[in-house]
Amino acid sequence: MIQLTPWDLGLSSILILLLAAMSWRLRLGVERRVLIAAVRSAVQLTLVGMVLHVLFAQTSLALIGLMALVMLSVAGFEVMQRQKRRYHGLWGYGIGAFSMFLSSFSVTLLAVTLIIGVEPWYQPQYLIPLLGMLLGNTMSGVAIALDNLTRNAWESRGKVEARLLAGQDWDAAIEDIRREALRSGLIPIVNAMGTAGLVSLPGMMTGQILAGSAPIEAAKYQLMIMFLISAGTGLGSVAAVWLGARRLFDERQRLRLDRLTNTPRA
Question: Is this prediction's pTM over 0.85?
């Protein structure tokens, strides 16, 4: 594999500066966000690379568990931040974090123990990248699904309350909203699978090819990853939407939109 030097990375960063300059010239107002995001990604990826270097050398289950916990915590926070109408209190964080823990961790464990057959199963070279890809993609699906759920529940509150008055329970009153939320959460990964190989070469496959792996082997690994991500996104979205929908009703089957923030986030 060809090693990249700091000079090589510096040359590629010029493209980010050009993007920021274009935003300033066209008055898009996002140049500051572009530059901050670029700096954050550089710092974060550098730190992660250093941490993984230590983990790969030690294979410590305690350190691997700590890093996995940090990854899950950040993912749960990002899900909450992406909601226009958030749940009050720890629910806004807990729903996303728990659903991703339930889906991403279980699918990753299945992959390293039964599919790949890693010995030991917590070998960080396999566990951390797989978990990271699953968390990242599941996070997007869960965030979209929850945002769709809360937004449509707020906008259709009159219809939901009318169904409750007609004698339906909470599950039936919000069933169509919940179904639409799940559909929206699955659309990105379904589109990604449908265009993989024709429109784009997915990230893992591209990385393996650049690292010198045979294209057919890279394709097989990418196919496995996409199947795992699809399962994780589906399970995570189902869990998040069910928990989120249940939270919108109390034990007396009343719609409780006061459990959401009243003003959408700008």
Answer: no
